User: What shape does this take?
Amino acid sequence: MHTLSQLRSGKLKGIKRLDLSCGLTTFPEDIFSLADSLEILNLSGNALSSLPDDLPRLKSLKVIFCSDNQFDHLPEVLGRCSNLCMVGFKANQIQTVSAAALPLELRWLILTDNQISHLPAELGQCHALQKLMLAGNQLQSLPETLAACQNLELIRISANQLQALPDWLFSLPKLAWLAFAGNPFCPMPPASPHAPAIHWQDLEVAEQLGEGASGVIYKALWQQENPRAVALKRFKGALTSDGLPQCEMAACIAAGEHPYLIGAIGQVEHPDQHPALLMPLIDGFSNLAGPPSLESCTRDIYAQDQYFSLENTLKIASSIAAAAEHLHAAHILHGDLYAHNILIGPENETRLGDFGAASFYTPEQNLLQNIEVRAFACLLEELLSRTQGSAATLDKLANLQISSAQVTISARPLFSEIKKILSSL
Ligand SMILES: Nc1ncnc2c1ncn2[C@@H]1O[C@H](COP(=O)(O)OP(=O)(O)OP(=O)(O)O)[C@@H](O)[C@H]1O
Assistant: This one.
């Protein structure tokens, strides 16, 4: 985090990224002294409600974050910033998004947790758009023109007022990660009679195990007749970038037990805080990869020296295909099938977790399974680019990857078939 005095002293000359969060109510003029170099401007966590008309003077600006401010509209000046490809205005009070506010090169738009009830048809002209985050708004419909955004790979439309799942989603050739729970058209989650009641006072919370955008995960001891070491996910707020914690918990609990899922024990009621999710403790595992970067946008980041034997790639891929098949059998779309949501053990034991983007769907919406198969294709592609082994088997895996990512989504194999193919290799 930078300070205003550092900015004013001229010490920041030449920097590419500026992070300022210090109660700003107006845009500091001094930011223009960085016009030659500034590519990423993060003004999240201030009290701004407007941006200056001459913002395009920041001619190298590619990324702007203004989350947790007081904007009631998406500033139109953004549309005149010609290199801007990522716009993040989460948790404002935005009601109005006009066509003029949309930069043509847009790849990643974050408008999560606002009050938007209408999006302009011109959003469909942002052909580079890959990631569209709209959870927690008041949208009753989406512009049909979005069908033209053929590069869209990740969409979050959970916790809105949508009356139906738009048909055009199924014509997006690259869509892989979709979250839509918490809309009026969504089926009710099934009751989970086996989930035990867990009382906050029975938990001894210990060290932090991990943290994501939506929650912090702690190790805990669950005091019962036979005390048990567990993992506790405490949500950071009432809405995450993927949707509602209640939907995440409902899906995670409804998914039930499976050898390749992290799984859930149940929901913890806290007298005065957000509910939390209790899970089995997965000890001694680590994340298969890190989440996407600003640059990679939709693709996970692996350690540079991370390689897999063919045997391990097959083991990971087969486990994930089996976990996804299990979820689809229960009509649950994971929505975030990514390496960064996979925990991996010392023997490459595999556990899929993070149901933050999960949605229940009806049998009539079965084609959603084929969308998730593309997420698997991305994972397989990443694993294959780091795998050494027999060329013949690698070729077969590459063919499976290609067919799982094919443009005609109905022609993609389902997870039951993928599992069969993998077990035959
Ligand atoms: N049951 C568990 N046992 C051990 N570690 C866990 C468990 N569940 C989660 N973790 C750790 O905590 C991290 C964050 O968990 P999770 O992905 O559920 O959080 P999140 O806030 O939803 O993340 P995201 O930013 O992807 O939304 C995981 O990547 C993992 O390292």
